[in-house]
Amino acid sequence: MGQQVSKIEVRPLASHVGAEIRGVDLAARQDDATIAQVRAALLEWKVVFFRNQKIGHAEQIAFASRFGDLTYAHPHEDQPLAEFPEILPIDSRRFDQRYGKRYSYENRWHTDVTAAVNPPAASILRAQSVPEYGGDTTWSNLVAAYEGLSPAIRELIDGLRAEHRFGLRFAAQDSENAYLKKVRENPLVAIHPVVRVHPETQQRGLFVSPGFTSHIVGVSRLESTRLLDLLFEQIAKPAYTVRFHWEPGSVAFWDNRATAHLGPQDLQHRDVERVLYRVTLVGDVPVGVDGVKSELISGEVFGARPPERLRAAYGKTRAVSDAPRAEVRP
Question: Which helix (H) or strand (E) holds 215?
Answer without folding.
Answer: strand 213-216
